[in-house]
Amino acid sequence: MEQGLCTVKANDAHDPAAPGDGLLLGRAAVFAAALLASIASAAAAADLGNLIAPYLAARERGAVGAVVGRAYEEPRRMGVEPQPYTAVSVLLLPGSADFEGELARIKAGWRDSPDRFVDADPKVRAALVAFERALLDAGGGALMKGEMTDGTGAFRVVDVPEGAWVLLAWQETEKKQKPPPIGRNDAALYPNRPKVFGHTTVVYWLVPVDVTAREETQVRLHGRNEWLTAVREDRRMRGIRSAATPNAPQASS
Predict the structure, then answer these.
(1) Which of 23, 46, 85, 234 has the most CB atoms at less than 10 Å from its CB?
(2) What DSSP string describes 82-146?
């Protein structure tokens, strides 16, 4: 049946998936600390253990399905083949109103100011870290299922317990740049001012997915159903190299 912009069993992203480096790691750590407290209390109120119990029970009795899909750039004219999005990180998580509500709050007004725009990516990553830790603490580590698209833009996640899930996917595109030269006087006045050595554009997709036992759910990720686009600046002091950025989703399959 048709739902949104693609078929799900076609589920597609619609308006209601962690890497990072440089100074933004500090930002993400601050956001994560605050979110861990807020999500932990929310999880306690909603009883995360009860939330994940049906997924674990379905896993035990073998009531599992698969989520398969493709990520691609839609052609701009007729007769041209879609171009695959490779190396897109795909992460399946149990559906959670608290987690999805936190993501919705991050997106709300993320373009209202430059600070909120730059803060969007570390906040999303911090929310993801907080939810993953809450799942681990509740015994739901096996319910974090990650994959990455291959050279054709395809991905396949198997042994997914039946139920309502949320798929968070993200693609990163890095662009390096040479910081503009600064005058001697400015260098003397602001010796510790970090420089921008480039930025990474991070495109996120957020997809609700309903999994049925012994069936495949199809998902399509493309430009028309992106959930959020953020920018991560490589801002650091001259002579200091940025940390490596892991791109694969940190999850157990």
Answers:
(1) 234
(2) PEE--S-EEEEEE--HHHHHHHHHHHTTTTSSHHHHHHHHHHHHHHHHHHHHHHHHTT-GGG-EE
